[in-house]
């Protein structure tokens, strides 16, 4: 069966060992509760051990291992339901993928409780080392936030980029922190009596108000003299450290799907390419242990989006960002063999200068060539079906929605905001065009009964980008035996010139239809998609195959 059922829990694992033989004999493609909408991976477990991750080891391990071998047959994503969707889980919460979101809802994002600015914030800890400083503050309501600042020479660069990108990743469905963009007067930050300052090489001492003022002199000011900060609200629960994009967490009994085979982590490559989130690596994730009764469960978060939209977090994005891995053999050898005569083409890319926007463009951008800082095991296993899942979510963002989210970056320069919107639209167009070309673009299958005439309706995503395309749809109905998984034709193939096909007169318990778009009445067309319907107790779409299972 191409599409797996994420019903695995510790109890189910035990029962599965006892009933494996029976299930293999009486396997069914569809179970009574398909398609599954929720993966119950939040069962109470003992608290796993907190752990850290070496950035150097993560770089080396993922650059030289954890990569699919040449010619390796990559497994389909394992945590999808029978419709090819990712169920809600401790990893993912369907939002745009399942429903419409208004511009106002998109602009609000994950934010629920902004820091109270009516009274000064108490700085409870801070760091002075590194290129940019940072504070941990407590507002008058007792809530804790981590403050991030912009690099001194680039006001709004990192904070605006992170505020915007956080909202996009939330809309896509990922668990992210509340990131509030706030403008404050420097005098509103007061050192707490017990505050701690972390200096170079791990040294700590009591932080004084003079330290706060000294550090703030390194932070850029807006024209009105205020400071723009990103206030990231403390996540609930106990931190366990980052997750990896490969393997499973052995001390989390709910973590049963290998991370490189999770569709939401594979498809993250599409969203990363769109926003140029080249820092999409394990160090920018966080597992939190949330209490539930006497135990709890692990929730998985993405965080730190300051390296998006042309920002490099602590500086402008490097010319290499999104174009080449940190350690990449071929270009390194080319440069060495030619004694530097051959130069990387991305070094010659022109980036318009807009205040608050870094190196972000759409002309040179090619989505299939986009790369993060170093290889990501999940990204490298992204199959066309994984890309389609992400692309259809991305396509739900129209220009109005994108503008609403970009506006939350509060960019002082209006032309910068407009440039960011136009660049995002063009990068999205390129992503959609490339990835829809490699897979059947039909989506949104639904049964409609109009005065006794029952049809299967659908949408063609390719028509959103090319509405004048002349297409017909070849289809053939079959009965489907859910036990043996065998099909039997219910008649000859037929064609439809509309986004609707009539159901056959025969109504066995399960129906199967293979549909292939055909361009200009040609005999070819794109790959087929198979759609499965359950006729009892009510007519409903229960399965979709886009991979090898859809081939004749």
Q: Could you explain the architecture of this structure?
A:
The protein is of the alpha+beta class. It folds into three domains: 280 residues, no CATH class; 114 residues, no CATH class; 109 residues, Immunoglobulins (Immunoglobulin-like, Sandwich). It is built from twelve helices and 19 strands. The strands form four sheets. The chain has a seven-stranded mixed sheet, with helices on both faces. A hairpin with a 6-residue loop joins β13 and β14. The radius of gyration is 26 Å and the shape is globular. The chain starts with 9 loop residues before the first helix and ends in a 7-residue tail after the last strand.
Highlighted features:
22% strand; 552 residues; Immunoglobulin-like; disordered N terminus; alpha+beta
């Amino acid at each position: 069966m191409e599409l797996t059922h994420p019903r695995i829990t510790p109890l189910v694992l035990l029962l599965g060992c006892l009933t494996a033989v029976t299930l293999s004999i009486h396997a069914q493609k569809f179970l009574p509760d398909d398609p599954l909408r929720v993966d119950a991976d939040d069962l109470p477990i003992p608290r796993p051990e907190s752990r850290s991750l070496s950035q150097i080891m993560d770089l080396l391990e993922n650059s030289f291992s954890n990569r699919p071998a040449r010619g390796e047959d990559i497994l389909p994503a394992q945590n999808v339901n029978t419709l090819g969707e990712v169920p809600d889980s401790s990893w993912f919460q369907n939002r745009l993928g399942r429903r419409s979101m208004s511009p106002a809802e998109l602009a609000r994002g994950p934010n629920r409780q902004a820091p109270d600015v009516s009274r000064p914030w108490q700085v409870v800890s801070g760091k002075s080392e590194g290129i940019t400083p940072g504070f941990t503050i407590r507002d008058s309501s007792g809530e804790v936030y981590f403050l991030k600042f912009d690099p001194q020479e680039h006001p709004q660069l990192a904070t605006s980029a992170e505020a915007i990108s956080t909202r996009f990743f939330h809309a896509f469905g990922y668990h992210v922190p509340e990131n509030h963009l706030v403008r404050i007067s420097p005098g509103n930050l007061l050192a707490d009596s017990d505050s701690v300052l972390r200096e170079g090489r791990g040294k700590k001492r009591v932080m004084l108000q003079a330290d706060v003022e000294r550090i703030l002199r390194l932070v850029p000011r807006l024209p009105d003299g205020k400071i723009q900060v990103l206030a990231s609200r403390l996540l609930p629960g106990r931190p366990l450290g980052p997750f990896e994009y490969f393997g499973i967490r052995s001390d989390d009994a709910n973590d049963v799907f290998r991370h490189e085979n999770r569709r939401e982590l594979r498809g993250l490559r599409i969203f990363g390419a769109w926003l140029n989130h080249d820092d999409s690596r394990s160090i920018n994730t966080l597992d939190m242990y949330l209490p539930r009764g006497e135990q709890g469960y692990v929730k998985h978060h993405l965080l730190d989006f300051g390296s998006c939209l042309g920002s490099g977090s602590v500086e402008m994005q490097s010319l290499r960002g999104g174009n080449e891995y940190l350690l990449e053999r071929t270009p390194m050898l080319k440069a060495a063999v030619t004694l530097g005569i051959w130069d990387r083409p991305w070094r010659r890319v022109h980036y318009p200068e807009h205040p608050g926007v870094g190196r972000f463009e759409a002309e040179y951008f090619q989505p299939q060539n986009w790369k993060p800082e170093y290889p990501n095991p999940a990204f490298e296993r992204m199959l066309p079906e994984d890309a389609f899942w992400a692309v259809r979510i991305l396509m739900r963002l129209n220009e109005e929605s994108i503008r609403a989210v970009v506006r939350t970056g509060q960019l002082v320069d209006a032309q910068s905001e407009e440039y960011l919107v136009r660049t995002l639209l063009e990068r999205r167009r390129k992503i959609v065009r490339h990835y829809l070309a490699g897979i059947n673009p039909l989506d949104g299958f639904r049964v409609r009964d109009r005065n006794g005439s029952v049809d299967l309706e659908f949408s063609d995503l390719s028509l959103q980008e090319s509405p004048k395309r002349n297409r017909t749809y070849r289809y053939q109905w079959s009965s489907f035996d859910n036990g043996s998984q065998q099909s039997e034709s219910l008649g000859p193939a037929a064609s439809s010139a509309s986004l609707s096909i009539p159901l056959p007169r025969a109504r066995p318990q399960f129906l199967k239809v293979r549909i292939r778009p055909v361009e200009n009445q040609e005999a070819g067309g794109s790959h087929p998609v198979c759609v499965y319907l359950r006729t009892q107790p009510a007519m409903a779409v229960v399965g979709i195959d886009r991979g090898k299972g859809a081939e004749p």
